Amino acid sequence: MKIGIVCYPTFGGSGVVATELGMALADKGHEVHFITYNQPVRLDFISHKLHFHQVLIEEYPLFQYQPYELALSSKMVEVVKKYNLEVLHVHYAIPHAYAAFMAKQMLLEKGIHIRVVTTLHGTDITLVGSHPTYKTAVEFSINNSDVVTAVSNNLKDTTNQLFNIRKNIEVVYNFIDVDKYSKAGEEECKRIALAKPNERILTHISNFRPVKRVEDVIKVFFEVQKEIPSKLLMIGEGPERMKAEILTKELGLKNKVFFLGNSTEIDQILCYSDMFLLPSKTESFGLAALEAMAAKTPVISTNTGGLPEVNIHGETGFLSSLGDVNDMAKNAITILKDDKVLTKFKNNAKDHTKKFSLENILPVYEEIYKSCYKSK
Ligand code: GMT
Q: What is the pLDDT of residues 278-289, one digit of tens each?
């Protein structure tokens, strides 16, 4: 099929999922066109046959805010017409579903019927989308998509609670290329640069926004390192990084916590991690936790949002109530203090990711594209 993918080209989970999906579809012989304002960070043009169309914004001094939706919908129309696209799959409702609706109307005037699949990712519903500033337009865009998917049952339920949705929302879990993370144990040389052989490595990866509660990550680690020789890797950039660094200093952890910034080598970092910490206020899914599990890394997380659908309590890691750093630390120590227990959790974590494998999820999206294209 000929598919257009619209997403945020950043390190965020929605952009990562959209990029991995596009690359996998291209590998299966579909013609995939990315329409974004920058090349997505994980997009690998060399080994995948893909097209990238950049949305350029014309700066004009009259505008306090440049009208990105207009530029995006115009670009969608141009690309759909030029390449005869059959489906537009937009990731993150704001403003992509809205711009897709406009593109669809413009194309209809020219006798072209493009199908729009909207995938809801989380913050487009929970944090931003339901805000009164955007709610009306988000609700409208969801109801006017041909197919709407959500990345967890929890996000589906939350969307139905927060909006008046007339469409059935299909749950399609986020997925992972399990093979990419199969190198666990092959990275000993890099591991030794960060931790001594007797030390455990704990990792946190996020965009360091308030919802990630990065200070809780430091607090959990503070308790863990009292009992278990360990190091903490903090991967990512964002507004709360400074607060986390200050707390690290205050707790005397400067030599044990490394802030490494954004990375495109997540799979390699996770290969030598023993535990992943995700104490978020909410996560519609928690893609970073799934990536960790694929690299045999058990997860200590909160029990909020869609996390219980990904991280299985007592099996792939543990779930705690929001803000209960003592419980999270206690659970982490239970796993880390015993080699046998750690190995069991590592294997369980890896096994559980089969449920979210690319081979299982990709055909679901292909079926969605086919069925909505066939429908009138
Ligand atoms: O977590 C973020 O702040 C980024 C956001 C995004 O749009 O990339 O992540 C959301 O989508 C991811 C991919 O579906 C999910 O794994 C994350 O759980 C979700 N974030 C939240 O719900 C906070």
A: 999 999 999 999
- For residue 221, count CB atoms less than 10 angstroms from its CB and return exposed for 0-12, middle for 13-18, buried for 19 or more: buried
The verdict on 108 and 55 lying in the same domain is yes
pLDDT, tens digit (0-9, with 9 covering 90-100), for 329-351: 999 999 999 999 999 999 999 99
Distance CA 86, CA 2 (A): 5
pTM, two decimal places? 0.94
Q: Which of 14, 212, 293 most suits a substitution to test ligand 1, by most atoms within 8 Å of the C-beta?
A: 14
Atom 12 of ligand 1: nearest residue by CA position: 13
CA-CA-CA-CA torsion for 122, 126, 127, 133, nearest 10 degrees? 120
Instruction: Write the residue with the smallest CA distance to atom 9 of ligand 1.
Output: 13
Q: Is 186's pLDDT higher than 90?
A: no
CA–centroid distance, 363 to ligand 1, in Å, is: 22
Q: For residue 195, give the CATH number of its domain.
A: 3.40.50.2000
Q: What's the domain range around 263?
A: 178-356
Residue 340's contacts (CB-CB under 8 Å, 6 or more residues apart) are none
Q: How many domains does the chain have?
A: 2
- Per-residue pLDDT at 364: 98
In this prediction the ipTM stands at 0.96
302 lines ligand 1 (CB under 6 A): no
- Same domain, residue pair 265 and 136: no
- Cα–Cα distance, 75 to 2 (Å, whole number): 16
Residues 84-93 have a mean pLDDT of 97
Average pLDDT, stretch 46-70?
90
Q: What is the pLDDT of residues 192-229, one digit of tens each?
A: 888 999 999 999 999 999 999 999 999 999 999 999 99
